[in-house]
Amino acid sequence: MDNKIKISVRSLVEYIYKSGSIETGFRSAVPLTEGTRIHQRIQKLYGEEDQKEVYLHAGFSFNNLDFHLEGRCDGLINQNEELIIDEIKSVSFPLSQIDKFAYPVHWAQAKCYAFMYAKDHNISKMTVQLTYVHAKTGEVKRFQHSYAFGELEAFIVHLLESYSPYAELRVRHQKNLLTGLKELAFPFPAYRNGQRKLAGAVYKTIAEGKNLFASAPTGIGKSISTLFPALKAIGEGHIQRIIYATAKTITRQAAEGAISLMRDKGLNLKSVTITAKDKICFKEETECHKDSCEFANGYYDRINKAVLDLLTKENMITRSTIEKYAMKHKVCPFEFSLDAAYAADIIIGDYNYIFDPKVSLKRLMEEEKKKTSLLIDEAHNLVDRGRDMYSSVLEKSAFLQLSRRFKGKDARLQKSAKQINGIFIALKKKCGENQEIAEKNLPEELFEVLEEFVHCAEDYLGQNRDNMDEELLEVFFAAQNFIRIGKLYDERFVTYIQQQRNNLVIKLFCLDPSNLLTKARKGFKSAIFFSATLMPLTYYLDMLGFQEEDYILAVPSPFSIDQAKVYIQPLSTRYRDREESIKPIVSTIKDILKEHKGNYLIFFPSYQYMENVHRRLLDEELTLDIIIQKTGMDEGEREGFLDAFKPNPSGTLLGFAVMGGIFSEGIDLQGDRLNGVFVVGVGLPQLGFERDIIKAYFNQQGKNGYDYAYTYPGMNKVLQAGGRLIRSEKDTGKIVLMDDRYMQAKYRALLPEEWKDYEVLRK
């Protein structure tokens, strides 16, 4: 690789001139669409000879680096033979708060454009203009300053001098990475059956810029089988970055383990794991304000030094690494991880950084997306997560409280909150005797007053930054999100109203997230969706947004049918029969554990059912150790639970867990750390209003609504739970499926082939 650095003007000037503190508690930011509209309104006022959205680029050599700078200025105005670069900025706060040189980063951006144009057209002097527009009032305030070409040139040299240490680090790293990738071999002596097929499909998909939906069995080594070919694609110049997205912390650790294996083989790559803000925050209360957090105060004044230090000394940047350097440089660990991630070859994080409109990696420019591939692990989880990300809720009680609290304090805000509460009262009357109703149309009247509420709340919060009203802030964000989701609303949504005692809830509920999931991944070079349980494949292709040009791969299990002995105990675990089922469940556990010592897991469809069986089993005279999953376990407690499953067990351990929970997928208890799995029930979600709406929607689409809402999501939990047992070619053990529905052809068809040679337990 040569020493060429391609960078946008905005990225360059923000790296050097962005300063001050993090203020994520409240941002008076103008939405992108609104900002675009304001820009266009100003540009319409330009004269016939003026130009708008002018693309500019220039090359520079500095410190043995070849910089290619590019950007697009808002306007080039020809005024009395004077050329003016116009940079338009839309703001929400009063223009009286802006003086001429209040924002150096804005001047820096415009000066770069001025230099590039002057250099290209051999002009000795340029004028720079900043045009600030108030988003609500349309009021305009302008500042101008003229610069000789020599001043602009000196300014560019200053920018490149400041940016060079970071640029040099990136160039050195890229050279080392590409050399290592050319020499990198698969980090195991041989591929498991199916691994080479999966790896080949991943590489081909990335090289062609397509998308792949891959069903690959548990234990095949999906992390290494997707990461290895994706890294090879970087080495061949097909992409520059990988984003590995997961639903759970434990699967992130699997990705880190695969990366560590390749690093042990000499690969010099940089990976950054992003941990959720509430988990990694150093403060007891996650309040990002300069007055309440020393890590937020002055963050941007220290962040460049922190990132440079981190990237110079570290390659595998996990949560603990981020925490160590964040403490050293006194910067917010969450924002630090995001800033570091943009320099990483691999970013590991939650689905929401790609798919959630509230959270996504917005700093990743479209040009960078085109060189980035997505690896979506345990993709079956994305269906329900997608529904959550594209749904939004408001509660009547929140606006009633605000209406009361702001009476005599802020008339506009109080009136707005009262209006919204009034609409909720009307909706309550509409419900009548019904506890809940669902409608296809958006509540347009509510959106009109919500927009006004957001404006009023924004003004109040902006004027009271030093004494932030947390309750108002929470409702402000909820209202903003409701409006945001409302703009995504189409025939795949429903609006439902639900009475909850004295409260009323209104929800924009996304029934089918496939279209929005597809839109969210547009712009990326490719996306690889993979899971052991994309079964039935037609359902997941439908729900995850499969397109005609996408690829499909189903990898058969590499493991022998003899490795797992499967039993079915035909008893009813339906809600009405659960009390009667406890005795035969306990009896089967006793029989199997008396005959075969070892480590076992038993999975239940609910905590209550699990606790009832647990209590009954404790009354039995059994020589065994029992551990049980608790709600809200922290990472230390989770590790303690898994550490109890020791190799070479001399006695018997039985771990109680919940299907679909933290121990039912992503955990890897190889060898005799796990000797058997009991699965109680068929995993069906609890019957309820939301699931019934989903069922009705898919029935209307000509599909089996019950299967889409209940059967397929439930059986996925079963397959994940049972899949904990066989993780390698040497693993053996027992799987006991406890439910009479497994005897039905419909449910049997959803079992893996290697589970279908089962024995029926008669009690």
How would you describe what is shown here?
With 763 residues, the protein is α/β, with parallel strands linked by helices. The chain folds into five domains: 4-165, Alpha-Beta Complex (Lambda Exonuclease, Chain A), CATH 3.90.320.10; 184-235 and 242-269 and 345-389 and 513-558, 3-Layer(aba) Sandwich (Rossmann fold); 271-344, no CATH class; 391-510, Orthogonal Bundle (Fumarase C, Chain B, domain 1), CATH 1.10.275.40; 561-760, 3-Layer(aba) Sandwich (Rossmann fold), CATH 3.40.50. 43% of the residues lie in helices and 21% in strands. It contains 26 helices and 25 strands. The chain has an eight-stranded parallel beta sheet, sandwiched between helices. It has a seven-stranded parallel beta sheet with strand order 21-22-20-23-24-19-25, sandwiched between helices. Strand 15 (493-500) and strand 16 (503-510) form a beta hairpin. Helix 5 (195-208) runs parallel beside helix 6 and helix 15 packs antiparallel against helix 16. The longest helix has 35 residues, at 149-183. The radius of gyration is 29 Å and the shape is globular. The N and C termini lie far apart (69 Å).
